[in-house]
Fold each of these.
Amino acid sequence: MSHRSWMYDRKYPGGRIVKARFKDGVEEFVTYAMSQDIVKSEGGIRCPCIKCMCGSIESAENVKAHLEKVGFMNDYYVWKHHGEREPTNINIEFDVNTDVSSSGAQAECGKFGRMQEMVGDALGVNMSYEGGGQEEIIPNNKALKFYAMMEEVNKPLYEGASDSKLSMCVRLLAAKSNWNVPEDCLEFFSKMMLDATPVKDNMPTSYYDASRLVSKLGLQVKKIDCCVNGCMLFYDNEFGTNDGALEECKFCNAPRYQVRNSDIHRKQKKVSVKSMFYLPIIPRLQRLFASMKTASQMTWHYYNKTNSNVMRHPCDGFAWEHFDTMHPDFAQDPRNVRLGLCSDGFTPYIQASATPYSCWPVIVTPYNLPPDMCMTKPYMFLSCIIPGPSNPTDGIDVYLQPLIDDLKRLWIGELTYDIARKENFTMRAALMWTINDFPAYGMLSGWSTHGKLACPHCMEHTKSFNLKNGGKASWFDCHRRFLPANHQFRKKKNLFKLDTTETDGPPPKITSYDVFHKVSGLGLLKFPDVGHRIRCDGYGEEHNWTKRSIFWDLPYWKDNLLRHNLDVMHIEKNFCDNILHTVMDVSGKTKDNEKARWDLPLYCKRPEMKIQRLPNGKYLKPKAVFSLTSDEAKSVVDG
């Protein structure tokens, strides 16, 4: 320890200048750490500063900066986390020779490739639980079972093999997923491999054997029966829902199972009319702490906040800070997970028939990770698949019940083993906000985005109106109220809406508590409680609320400063389409149509664009100055 006394002799008296000996020692430490195999395998140095405490993997430059700023963690004379001391106590060794990045295995594994990479990270380290006079920290029972199972199935197929039984099973399932390979074909491949190899003990014998083995990873999928009309789920939970034994919908009395009249089907398993898939998020979040690669990054948001005006990550935003202020017990442990949710409809197959099919995936992503990881495919967890064939509209809350139940459990906490810090902790998680396009915003929030009260910011204070000929709601000239009080545009009578000046200010801002009190005051019910859309008194005139969103069941939801976000990509795409169609004067898609021209003189002073009546009784629609001629449109396309 004496030869490393410089580690805790950082600054000269007065506390301003870092000693040169300390800087040289830090350089010595970084050089030594970079030469160690454990640092090379982790892709960076575990920062031993007093804040990171070897819980965060950083670059050499960041480690130097951290150490010079705050110094080393207490009693770290022996650099045991950087390869200096071999573990001497309880060791769980896993014989893992699988290189998931070689021979194109990672590419072939497709969406399972990252899972196999995680397995390699978790098992490729020497699990050491150090005593040294202190209480030994071992994984909890679930984690121990997981690691014991991995030790069993991740042994090489034979001596010198680069694949294990687990990796072969993962690659088989990846082939089915990536190229839609039939199960019979996979059965043929399995038997072909068994016939071709002299070592048959560790090879998957069938597709069923492969799927059963991979399912032991704990990333299960639940198939939940639901009403064919989307009224309810046949589902039990500990929060008061006990509908799992019902055989018909309690709202519309639709049957749960397909009706079979033939006697030969009496002993066969009942087949549900409609089902949804739910992929529990708790084990998936726990797996983030089972891998050395991701566990060390789950506190990135805590150690990389910035006070600059540039928002690099949601943790730099005011909504994040507000949540930390409202829930300091949650913010105390940086490993607690912050989540975002998004959903949108898509057509899963090319439609040959005239009847479309709309399927709605619900994706959850953790924001703890750095920007280059948190919005990438491996960390966007598919949690629900809401079946079609039609848009679930307000009934999307029915299908979100299992996810909300898991979020309630995560707010209380789930015991989880953190492989980076070699300790058990209570992992908590909170849903920060949702991200959707405008129609889905209405489905999730409960404020309908249709009609003249569609704007969720203006609400009942909107100045929208219905077009006389077009019949649609219009928000024309609603923007001037947001201008400064002395802005010159406020006094223009004919530049915007006809004979109108603007003296009003912007609509009042309402807090999340105001929204919660409004929803509660109207006596709105959740869709799962009533099984259908309801209309409270004053809908469309005084408010646009259609339901009490299921997100209000989360105990912290009313404390969230930012609950629903609009997906800018969708909005920009739609605006771009409308502008292009109008400027290019695309027939049937331009917004500058005949009804718009009839409405124009009622609301605007644009005499040059007014429809003119010709002597022969016909009407002429003058060409707008903003629309291109045929030659101009062709030059734009060709250019």
Amino acid sequence: MLLSKRLLWGIYFINLIYEKVFCQQVPCAARSYGQSSIICVCNATYCDTVEPESRLPQGYANMFISTLAGQRLEKSSISFTHQPSKTAQVTLEVKPQSVYQTMLGFGGAFTDATGINILSLSLPAQYHLIQSYFGSMGLEYTLGRIPMASCDFSTHLYSYDDSPGDLGLANFTLAMEDLKYKIPIIQKAQSISRHKISLFGSPWSAPAWMKTSQNMTGYGTLIGNPGGPYYKAWANYFVRFLEEYRKYNITLWGLTAQNEPTDGYIHNFPFQAMGWYPDQQKDFIALDLGPAMKAGGFSDVKLMILDDTRLNLPYWAEKVFSHQSNASMYVSGIAVHWYEDFIAPTLSLDVTHKEYPDKFILATEACITGNFPSKVSLGNWENAEKYAHSIIEDASHWVTGWSDWNLALDMEGGPNWVKNFVDSPIIVNAKADEFYKQPMFYAMGHFSKFVTPGSQRIEMSQDTSVEDFESIAFQRPDGSVAVVILNRGTSPVLTAIHDPLVGYLNRTVPPRSLITFTWWR
């Protein structure tokens, strides 16, 4: 074990020296699995990287491009001109004086499945995977979600206190999965990141003995009513979770009050869930969870409600933040999932922000669930477009960040104890000691690496009739600008981006491509 740790740290420092001295992009080792595009193969000795952006003089911009044809965050530079191209099909006007929401970041979830898959690799390959997400030549994720105890992406049901009647939580203890699969991976990510990673916890279910169903799955709620002994115990369960993680030098930034609270009112729901109506959640926060967090010294932890589809907005927020309760004083934000977005209009986000401008909206879960016959679709470019479209749409309607689901899954899309397999930006092939970066991985990077925490969305008018062409702009904390363009169409689009202080960027955006531009004003 000592030799293995020395080997890992030796590789770490060699890579660190390489990054600092050369800062050159290592290209994708492309492989096709017969899908619309390619994946990039990483192993113990090789892994592609993203070249850091350069601070160019005024009049020049960095450009990072990914395409259906196989480019992956490839960097180049482009110069501004004094005039737009006469043949421009799209003109984008950047207006930094019009500022909207402040961004919190982008990231993914440290599930049991993620840890199991990362640890199935050799130590050098593990390093490359964690570096790919959190390192300076990776995507530089700044958000991380932690399931509180088990979820479906565990190998079995478990809670932190499986002792019936233990309302005082005398037997509360973190599980083996926390100590082996979550905490060590989080610590490694923190050790290589140059940014603070904002970590937030989400519970799927209380221990079975606390619930009306006496089961962590399916239909069921907490026993009794808000203010009662089971609600008090459940509130203190959150506090104990925060305390236990703090013992490992992991301080959480936030919590959601419940993952997908509507699932717990579905009969025969197959995996961990617990039902809440908004009035229940309001009273639980006001009478139990908010006071418990305050008494435990965690009043600075950002508490979020909902953590479910935006189809529930603005109704859910209106109920929780009603004037008949003081729940609002304990809540910082509203968490949303992307499932059912196709039937939930963005108006729900706009109305919610207008009614509660002091509460941030954060997208906390997304994954591809519909691939057939296999849930894992290696090289599927359409999935990358779905991710980029969702991020642009959400951020254009007041959402402050976007967290993916599992950071890494196996070739089947698991492990998952109820076989609820899905896709992931990184797929691990443990038998070959390889992992595969999906097009989704690079779609995430077009935002996570360049739209740093503290960036603000700014207005950008789009003069176009071109279909399947989307764009968004941000001003970063140092005053520089980042513009992301998604072209889902099958034709190239000649585009002119105008910054009044700098000039015009004239660039043909290839079909089926994603481009991030950054420049200093």
